[in-house]
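User: For my dataset I need records formatted as: sequence, then structure tokens, nothing else. Please produce one.
Assistant:
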Amino acid sequence: MLLVTSRKCRSSVLLSLCIGLLCASSAAKAEYLGLMHGRFADVSRMPTLSADVGVAFADDYQFLGARVNYKLTPIFMVFGSMGLSEQGRSDGLPIGVGALYTLEGLVSGLDVGIKASYHRGSFELLDVNFDLSNLALELVASTQDGFGANGNIDFYGNIGFQRRSSDFSFDDTELSFGGGVIMPIGPGEVFVGVDIIDEAMFGGGFRFFF
């Protein structure tokens, strides 16, 4: 009986260590469990309703999902997301919510806003279910005048803090920064970007206007 209990204890400790290492590896992924920012800091430039589909990927991490953006006022927007995510050998179905608020008149030539988001997903590893979550607070900026031959290419940047946690007492707060490009195409616009903490996470997608 003691031998069985000891084996169960060791298995539990080993599983906890595996999940802990899995969570620790996520510390290098900005906007973890969601899509890249990929939007203007000036909410007034967004349609009232839009939907994004896209991917994000890094070493041992993938996310494929969708996000719905809804503009409540010319300076305030809310959004929600859902997708499929793989982290190492685990997989899950994270969902997220957030908001973007435009800070008017701060910098000449640039639009500036503040974004907060929370993502949470249930994952499975070795037949054990556990939750991973990410709380993000970022300052975002985007160009007011487009670049390129047609003046339709805009750039955005983001910098902030990402706080990740899990069921196994893993807690980590990191500084993140990144940026990308937004360009109108057909019934919407395409966006691509990169986010960095310890390593790069790349991503992109397409936004449909409604």
